[in-house]
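Friendly challenge for the regulars: who can give me the C-alpha cells for this chain first? No prize, just bragging rights.
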Amino acid sequence: MSDTPVKQQNTAAFYGQAVASFAVAMAATAIGIYQLEADAWVRAFLAIAVLYLVTSAFTLAKIIRDRQEIGQIVSRVDQARLDKILVEHDPFQKPGGTPAGQRP
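First reply, four minutes later:
Bragging rights claimed.
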C-alpha cells in the first residue's frame, strides 16, 4: 500500500491570527459604515452588502475545501485499486491463465 499522507493541522497561533484579522476587518468596516456621512438607508444597504459578502465568502471557502477533500478521497480509492491490481499481477503468468512453470 502507499504511504498515507499526514493530515496537516493549523497551529493555534495561525488560528488566532485568522480570527483576530477577521474581527479587526469586520470592526473597521462597521466603524467606517457607521461614520459615513450618508443617509441611514445607504449605511444600512452597505452593512447588508458587507454581511452578504462575508457569508458568500464563507460558503465559497467551504465548497472549495469540500471539493478538495473529495478529490483526495477519490485519489486514495484509485491508488488502493491500483495497488491491489499490482499485488495480484503475476508477470510470469501465461495468457492461458496458468502461471509459467506450473501444470494445469
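The CA atoms of residues 51 and 84 lie 50 Å apart. The helical segments are 12-35, 40-88. Your move, everyone else.
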